Amino acid sequence: MKRTLLFIVYSTFLLFTVLSYSVNAEQSVEEAAIASSQEWLSLVDAGKYAESWDDAAGYLKNALPKQKWVESLQAYRKPLGKLISRKLIAKQYATALPGMPDGEYVVIEYETSFENKKSAIETITPMLDKDGTWRVSGYYIR
Questions:
Q1: What pLDDT is stored for residue 28 in this prediction?
Q2: Among 8, 35, 53, 64, which residue's CB has the most CB atoms within a 10 Å radius?
Q3: Is residue 20 within a helix (H) or strand (E), and if so which, with residue range?
Q4: Residues 6 or more apart in contact with residue 84 via CB below 8 angstroms
């Protein structure tokens, strides 16, 4: 009886330890991806669109030539004006996303206010690139 009780207590402790480690690991992955996205967004906010492409994930670079990227941001982001505020509202770790190769991603949403658009949602998707660095693979404003 004591052995069974001891086994149950030990098993429960071990389960909580493993679950805690898993949650902490996912949180640190998300934090690294968020930090990377914020650095990248600072380039976009400063109008450094070509540099944002340079710092993007290989997937984005292969999907869209640099000049097209710059033209797209000039057409869609620049008219919004200066950043007023940006607040993190959601983050979700994923290993598979529609239309994307399997990998490690964090889909991040910000509630954002710009000079010429008071309410917007920015969705930015960093992915773990081949060299182990989190880089942006997608950016959308709605």
A1: 87
A2: 53
A3: helix 2-45
A4: 113, 114, 115, 118
Strands of the 117-128 sheet, one edge to the other: 83-94, 105-114, 117-128, 134-141
Q: What backbone torsions phi and psi does residue 3 show, to the nearest 5 degrees?
A: -65, -40
Average pLDDT of the segment spanning 81-90:
98
- Classified as helix, coil or strand, 28 is helix
- State the DSSP code for 77: T
Six-digit token string for 46: 């400063």
- From 125, 120, 129, 122, select the one nearest 138 (Cα to Cα): 125
| For the chain, percent of residues with pLDDT exceeding 70 | 82
Domains of the chain (ranges, CATH numbers)? 2-141 (3.10.450.100)
**84 DSSP 8-state letter:** E
Report which secondary-structure segment, H or E, holds 52: helix 49-54
